[in-house]
UniProtKB/TrEMBL annotation:
Pfam families: DUF642 (PF04862). InterPro entries: DGR2-like_dom, Galactose-bd-like_sf, Pectin_Meth_Modulator. Residues 1-24 form the signal peptide. The gene is LOC104613510. Gene3D superfamilies: Galactose-binding domain-like. Residues 30-183, 195-361 form the DUF642 domain. It comes from the Eukaryota. SUPFAM superfamilies: Galactose-binding domain-like. GO terms for molecular function: enzyme regulator activity. It is found in: Secreted, Cell wall. Its main location: secreted. This is Uncharacterized protein LOC104613510. One of its GO terms (cellular component) is plant-type cell wall.
């Protein structure tokens, strides 16, 4: 009797264990055949001759596997990574089912290239979440770029869809996509003595080890659903998330490179106490990507704005700047954009700009008052003890 009771106690636990195995959410990293290098059932031989079935993906409309070096109308098609990628024709889509943790925030990283001169865009969705990303502006001379898009999982069964919403006259004009990965985003706790969340930018979207172009973060006004926790990209154009493996980064492994002058703005609303004095400090530097000088940012804290130039120094890739402001409200906007519209010295068409990192905001007057308050209390207690 006792044995059957203990057995029945274990059964639900066992079922829960099995259920967790069955419903294991997708792991951080590349999706299954996210690089489109898995050989299709009829081989890669049919590539270039029209639609083929793509392992692990569902397709709808004219979806083609393209090969690097393949030509179209005299133009060599760009494959961002490896040898193969997919091209989406007019209104065509590819999709894959992914298991998610309901309520969690995920970020999808992918690479995309344009094929024709026309305006191209790409719709990325995990219904009901969806965003159309503009590929019109090329940020690098390579002709492709990596992007990140974040969403909140509405259920455990996610359906990731990439769709070309275009209706071009030439049906072969459509974006090429490649290298798709996913990462569950976690929002770091607010650090001590600093009201900025993720001010060091260490938490962000998935980055490929060989991804030498960084990851573009397009416009995102929803701070709850951001590939860069705590921050929003409140401008029309993207900012670039960079890593220490391919760029100069002031602190830790990740930072933000601001692009496109005031068309690329990151910001965060931080908690403040009205009338209190605060200090804003941050690192400002170059990314080590041959960006044409001068580099400068406009830094905002509440109604204060300051233009700060990066002064190149030997052996240093960045400098730390400090400015003070008085909070006017319980929430204060901290924001940055590049003062100039910089390009690289070696190709004049790749966008680049100043790097910001290690952003901190802390109360000045409050800290002083607190420490003197503690001192007074200790003195009073000492006097009482002596009496
Ligand atoms: Ca950092």
């Amino acid at each position: 009797m006792a044995r059957s009771t203990s057995c029945s106690r274990w059964v639900p636990l066992f079922l829960l264990f099995i259920a967790r195995l069955v419903f294991a959410a997708v792991e951080d990293g590349p999706l299954v055949n996210g690089d489109f290098e898995k050989v299709p059932s009829n081989g890669f031989s049919g590539v270039g001759d029209g639609p083929v079935s793509i392992p692990d993906w569902n397709t709808n409309g004219t979806v083609e596997l393209v090969e690097s070096g393949e030509k179209q109308g005299g133009m060599i098609l760009i494959v961002p990574q490896g040898v193969h990628a997919v091209r989406l024709g007019n209104d065509a889509e590819i999709s894959q089912d992914i298991k998610l943790e309901k309520g969690s925030i995920y970020s999808v990283t992918f690479s995309a290239a344009r094929t024709c001169a026309q305006l191209e865009s790409l719709n990325v969705s995990v219904p009901p979440a969806s965003q159309t990303i503009d590929l019109q502006t090329l940020y690098s001379v390579q002709g492709w770029d990596s992007y990140a898009w974040a969403f909140q999982a509405d259920s455990e069964d996610g359906h990731l869809v990439f769709r070309n919403p275009g209706m071009e006259d030439d049906p072969t004009c459509g974006p090429i996509i490649d290298d798709i990965a996913i990462k569950k985003i976690f929002t770091p706790d607010k650090p001590k003595d600093n009201v900025v969340i993720n001010g060091d930018f260490e938490e962000g979207p998935w980055m490929f080890k060989n991804g030498s172009l960084g990851v573009l973060l397009p416009t995102n006004l929803d701070e709850e659903t951001s590939s860069l926790p705590g921050w929003i990209v409140e401008s029309n154009r993207a900012v670039r998330y960079i890593d220490v493996n391919h760029f100069s980064v002031p602190q830790g492994k990740r930072a933000i490179e601001l692009l496109s002058g005031k068309e690329g703005i990151i910001s965060q609303m931080v908690e403040t106490t009205p009338k209190k004095e605060y200090s804003l400090s941050f690192s400002l530097g170059h990314a080590g990507d041959s960006c044409q000088l001068p580099l400068a940012v406009m830094a905002f804290a509440g109604d204060q704005a300051q233009n700060i130039h990066y002064l190149p120094m030997a052996n240093e890739t960045f400098a730390t700047t400090n400015l003070t402001f008085t909070a006017k409200a319980e929430r204060t906007r901290v924001a940055f954009y590049s003062v100039y519209y910089n390009t690289r010295t070696d190709d004049h068409s790749s966008l680049c700009g100043p790097v910001v990192d290690d952003i901190r905001v802390w109360a000045l007057s409050g800290a002083k008052r607190n420490s003197s308050g503690v001192l007074t209390l200790v003195l009073v207690l000492l006097v009482l003890a002596l009496l």
